Amino acid sequence: MNRFIKGVCLALTLVAALPAQAAIKVLATTADWGALATELGGDKVNVYTATSALQDVHRVDAKPSLVARARTADLVVANGAELEIGWLPVLLQESGNPRIQPGATGYFEATSALRLLEIPTAVDRSMGDIHPLGNPHVQLDPRNIAVVAKALSARLAAVDAPNAPYYQSRGADFQARWQQALTRWSTQAAPLKGVPVVVMHRDQTYLVHWLGMQELAAIEPKPGVPPSAGYLAGLVTRLSASPPRMILLNAYNDPKAADWLSERIKSPVAMLPFSVGGTPEAKDLFGLFDDTLQKLTAAARQ
Amino acid sequence: MGHASRVIASVAIAAALLPATVQAADDVAALRAEIAALKADYAERVGALEVRIDQLESASSAAAAVAAEPPPPPPSAPARNSSAFNPAISVILAGNYADLSQDPADYHFAGFIPSGGEIGPGERSFNLGESEITFSASVDPYFTAALTLALSPGNEIGVEEAFFRTTSLPAGFTVKGGRFFSSIGYLNEIHAHAWDFVDQPLAYQALFGGQYAQDGVQVKWLAPTDLFLEFGAEVGNGGAFPGTRLGRNGLNGATLFAHAGGDLGDSIGWRAGVSWLDLDAEDRAYADVDSLGSPVVNAFTGGSQTWIADATLKWTPSGDTRRRALKLQAEYMQRTEDGDLAFDVDGSGLSDGYHSRQSGWYVQGVYQFMSRWRVGLRYDELDSGTTRIGLVQQGELLAADFPLLLPASPSRVTTMIDWSPSEFSRLRAQYAWDDARDGATDRQLLIQYLYAIGAHGAHKF
Which of A105, A108, A190, A179 is nearest to A145 (CA)? Predict the structure, then answer.
C-alpha cells in the first residue's frame, strides 16, 4: 500500500513537471493577436488562432475544435471590449479550464491596455451593433500594437515565469523593430493625411484616425446593418459632388455594395487586409501595415 | 532546452520538499536589514520623482497635443452602486400564427404512450409563445449560476432551468447542479428560441415530451486533446417523462454521454455523440379509450432505457457565418421499456407484463443562402416497434383496448424559411405535412416571430 502511494506521488510529480518542458499553449481569438503572440513568444509558445482574417469576428461559431483548444490553453489572448461576446464566453465556460477564466492570469484582453475610441454615451440596439465599451477594432493603429505588445510581453512572463527573461528580451527586440517600422510607415503615409474616404464599417475607424484621413461616410448605415438600395442611392447623390479619393473595404467584407458605389461615384476601392492573413502580402503584423499602406497609397494615386 | 527545463523543474520540486526552517532565524535578521535599506532608497527616489513631476506639470501643456503615442488606458471607472453586481438579464419573446388542417386537440403520436409534455403545433390562430427570462452571473470565483423562467401564454410561470456551475475545478471537470436540460443528444440542451424550426423533432416530442430536464447533478470531463472529446454523467430524481418520482430515497434518471468534435479543413466543423438514459417509472398514467369506447386511465410501472446517437455538421466557407452556411443534423433514438402495464387503474385494475422497443429519428438541413436568409428541410419518422402487452397476449383484453399502442409509424416533412434582420430578431414561416396521428395528414402553416432583448447571449455550436 505504502509503495502504491509512493508510486502515485512519483507519477503525479512527473505529470506536474511535464508541462514545464513544453511550449506554453496560447489561444488567440484573432489573427492579429495570434501573430503578436508569435512575435513575442517565439518558440516558447504554441499559438492557435481561433479565427482567420476572412471571418467576421463578431460572428463565430463556438465550434467543438475551439472548445478543445480552450481546454488545454495556458493563455487566452482575446481582443476584448465585447468583440467576441457571442462565442468566447461559451468557449471559456465549456473548456473546464480555470487558468483562462476572466480575471485569471491566463486571460488577457488586448483592449484592456488601450483607451478606446467612440465610447458611446448612450447605448441602444436600435443603433445597430454598437459596443458599449467603445470601438473594439483597435489593431489597425500600429501605435496600439506597440502598447498591447508591452502588456502581452509582461503577461507571457507572468504565465511562463521560468522564461520571463526570454520574453523580456524578445519584447524589447520587437519594440525596437516596431518603432523603426512606425517611422517608415509615418513617412509613407504622409500623403494620405486629410484624404477623404468612405469606409465600410466602423472597424476601420482606428486606421482612419491614425492616418488622419477624413471619413466622409460609411457604407453600413449603422454598425452591422447592411445598406439598403435606398441608402446607397442616397450616398451616391451625397458623394457625387465631392467624391472620396477611395472606398476602404476589408478582405472579409462582401464587396458588392462597395463595388456598386465605386462604379457610380468613380472612386477606386482599396481592398485592405484588415487582419494578418487578409491578403497574401499580410503574412505578419509588419506585412499587415506594409500592405495596408501600399494599397492605400496606390489607390490615392489613381 | 527540454533538458534544461527538466532540470529546473526538478530543482524547484526538490526545493519545495526541503525542510524550510533550517536557516529561518538568520534569514529574518538579514531581511530586516534589507528592508530598512530599501525603505531609505525609495524615500530618496520618490522625492526625486516628485520634483520631476512638478517640473513637467509646469511645462507647457501644448506638448501633450503632439504626442505620437496613443492615449494611455482610461482610469478604471469605479462601480458606483450595488447594481453593478446585478445579473445579466435577457428576455426572449416569441409567438406565432397557426393554420392547421386537423384539430390540434387530438394531436398524439400513434403507437406511443403519451408523454403529457409539450407536443404538437399548438393551437390555431394567433398564439403567444413562451416568453423566456434568463438571469445569469458569476456567484463568486468558484461558481456561476443561471435561472431561466418560462412565462406561458396562460399566465403561468415555470422554472425552465435553474442551475449552478463550477468554473474552477481542475483537470477539465465541470459540475452542474439544479434543474437543467440534460446533455443527452444534440437538441435536448438547446433552448426553443435557438431551434432551426418552430418545433422539436417528433422523436423528442414522442420520447421525452419535448426536452428531458434533470433535477439533479451533472459531471462533465473534457479531455485535454486537440480533438474535442467530452464525457459526462448525470443523476437526478427522474421526475420528467419517461420517468416518474419514485417516492423513496435514492437516485433516478442516470445518464451517460460522450461527445466528439473537430474541424474538417477551414470550413467544416462537426460534432457527434452517443447518450444513454436510464429511468424508472412508477404508475406513469395516461388516458386512453377502450374497445367499447369508455375512457380509461392506464399506468406503466417499470424501467425505461433510451439511447441516442447524434451528428451535426456545419459548413461555412472560410468560417464566415455572415454569408453562406449549411448545417446538417441528424439524431436517432431508441427506447426500451420493460415492466407492467395496468389497465383501467380506477376500474378493473388488471395488470400484466409490458415490453416495448420504440425508436425515432430525424434528419435536417438548414442553408443560409445569403446574409440574413435561411431555408430548411426536415424529415421525421417514428417507429412504434413491436409492443408486447401481457394482458393482450394472455387473452384477457383485446389489442383494441389499447388503441394508442396499436403499431404505427408516424412521419412528418417540414419546410422552413426565416429572415433575421439582426442577431436579435427573426421571422420564420414553416410548412409541415405532419402524419403523427398515422391517419389524416395535418397540414400546418406556422408564422413565427422571435425577439431577444437585454444581454447578448452566446450560443453553443
Answer: A179
Chain A CA closest to residue B230: A68
CATH of domain A191-301: 3.40.50.1980
Architecture of the domain made up of A14-184: 3-Layer(aba) Sandwich (3.40)
- In eight-state DSSP terms, residue A21 is T
Provide the residue ranges of all domains of chain A, joining segments of one domain with +. Answer: 14-184, 191-301
What pairing do the DSSP bridges indicate for beta strands A246-250 and A196-199?
Answer: parallel
Chain A / chain B CB contacts < 8 angstroms: 156
Output the CA angle B307-B309-B311, nearest 5 degrees.
160
Which of B183, B373, B423, B451 to substitute to test the interface with A, most A CBs within 10 Å?
B423
Q: Which helix (H) or strand (E) holds B50?
A: helix B24-58
Same fold, A14-184 and A191-301: yes
Nearest CB neighbour to B269, from listed A64, A115, A128:
A64
- Domain residue spans of chain B: 105-125+197-451
φ, ψ dihedrals at B302, nearest 5°? 160, -160
Cell 511562463 -> residue: A160
Side-chain-facing half-sphere of B106: CA atoms under 13 Å: 14
Q: Is B428 helix (H, G, I), strand (E, B) or coil?
A: strand
Q: Can you read off the three cell numbers belonging to residue B380?
A: 421525421
Closest CA in chain A for residue B324: A254
**Pair A140, A227: CB distance under 8 Å:** no
Contact state of A21 with B173 under an 8 Å Cβ cutoff: no
Report in angstroms the alpha-carbon separations of B103 from B70, B96, B97, B100, B289: 68, 17, 15, 7, 18
Cβ pair B422:A65 closer than 8 A = no
CATH number of B105-125+197-451: 2.40.160
- Type of residue found at B222: L
Question: What distances in angstroms separate CA B328 from CA B265, B269, B382, one per listed residue?
Answer: 17, 11, 20
DSSP per-residue letters across B242-305: T----SSSS-EEEEEEEEEEEEETTTEEEEEEEEEEEEEEEEEEEEEE-TTS-EEEEEEEEEEE
How does pLDDT run along chain A (302 residues), one tens digit per residue? 456 556 555 555 555 444 445 799 999 999 999 999 999 999 999 999 999 888 888 888 899 999 999 999 999 999 999 999 989 999 999 999 999 999 999 999 999 999 998 888 888 888 887 888 999 999 999 999 999 999 999 999 999 999 999 999 999 999 999 999 999 999 999 999 999 999 988 889 999 999 999 999 999 888 888 888 899 999 999 998 889 999 999 988 888 899 999 999 999 999 999 999 999 999 999 999 999 999 999 998 87
Q: Which of A20, A61, A89 sits opposite B314 (nearest CB)?
A: A61
